[in-house]
Amino acid sequence: MNAEEFDKKFDNGEDIREYLDVAGARRPGQEVRRVNVDFPLWMIESMDREARRLGVARQSIIKVWVAERLRKAQ
C-alpha cells in the first residue's frame, strides 16, 4: 500500500491499525527513568490514605502531585 492509499483509508475513518508497526513506537518526552526516593513514614502513610481514597496506586499519587507542582513552577 502506498502513502496515498493509506491516507485515504485514514481520512475515510477506516481501521488502519493492521498497517502500522507499533512494536518500537515511543512517545517523545514520555520515556521513563526509574528513580528512588526515600520518604518519612508519615508521608508514606498519608500518600497511602489518599491513594486508597482515590482507588489508585501510591505511585500514581506521587506522579500527579509532582506533575502539578512542576506545572505551577513553570
Could you please describe the fold and organization of this structure?
This protein has 74 residues and is mainly alpha-helical. The protein has one domain. It is built from 3 helices and no strands. The protein has helices at residues 3-11, 41-54, 58-73. Helix 2 (41-54) packs across helix 3 (58-73). It is elongated and about 60 Å long. The N and C termini lie far apart (45 Å). The mean pLDDT is 92.
Radius of gyration: 21 Å
Structural class: mainly alpha
Low-confidence stretches: none
Q: What's the shape?
A: elongated
Number of strands: 0
How do the SSEs run, as a string of H and E?
Answer: HHH
| Domain tally | 1
Our count of helices gives 3
Structural topology:
Blueprint: H1 3-11, H2 41-54, H3 58-73
Helix pairs in contact: 2-3
Tag the structure with descriptive keywords.
74 residues; elongated; 0% strand; mainly alpha
Structure described in brief:
By secondary structure, the protein is an all-alpha fold.
